[in-house]
Amino acid sequence: MGRVDGKITVVTGAASGIGRESARLLAAEGAKVVLGDLDEVGGEEIAQEIRGAGGSARFRRTDVRSFDDVGALVGSTVEEHGGLDVIVNNVGVAIGGTAGEMSEEDWNAVLDVNLTGVWRGMRHAIPAMLASGGGSIVNISSVQSLVGFLGWSGYAASKGGINALTQQAAVEYAPQGIRVNAIIPGTILTGMNEGILRDHPDPASLMSTWTSMHPIGRIGQPEEVATAVVYLASEESSFVTGMLLRVDGGMVVKAG
């Protein structure tokens, strides 16, 4: 038996990066996964890959900026599988800018996807989980919720909001059997960070900087975050809620 055998699971942002690897590993450990993303090609690709390996997966195009889209993703999952056990709220965008320079449009855009998108997932998942006796919510935050990076004020604020929302909901819903936790990744080699590298005038220097920030001596891989997702989705973490689990190569505890 797998570690999440038979658990009905929704993963947003599942077409790439942490979401993709989380979906793959959850399915390998026995979960029935329903994948949401705007990237239809990437989403269908990972769903087919999972099915080809003998797992259960379906993709549905989902924009986490839309309350109705997220509701349809969760609703169709409940209709198809009879309930919901796990949701992984993973979608995120990186929009740069300091607090004194960001446009209001950029500020609203990053908060809408990164923070309100997570809330939309929780808002629809919680009633479904209450109806079936409980579940596990896993939100993907960032080390930028805990430490300052130059030029990323909106992104940091959105991720800090995820931490607070996670802890608040954990207290609210623990008595009804819903656990709510967040993972705080360090620098992970996702498509988003690959794009930042491509756009940088000196990618090698930026990668060197990222590497030096992690005492472990390298940046992380999406599958290393996915293992934490499976832990929090599984009954192995049955007494864990309200936790902000750092998967950051020691970045946050490094003195300098």
Describe the overall structure.
The structure is a single chain. By secondary structure, this protein is of the alpha/beta class. The protein is built from eight helices and seven strands; from the N terminus they run βαβαβαβαβαβαααβ. It has helices spanning 17-28, 40-52, 67-81, 104-131, 153-173, 191-199, 203-212, 222-233; strands at 8-12, 32-37, 56-61, 86-89, 135-140, 178-185, 244-247. Strands 3-2-1-4-5-6-7 form a seven-stranded parallel beta sheet, with helices on both faces. Helix 1 packs across helix 8, helix 3 (67-81) runs parallel beside helix 4 (104-131) and helix 4 packs parallel to helix 5 (153-173). The chain is globular, with a radius of gyration of 17 Å. The N and C termini lie far apart (44 Å). The mean pLDDT is 95.
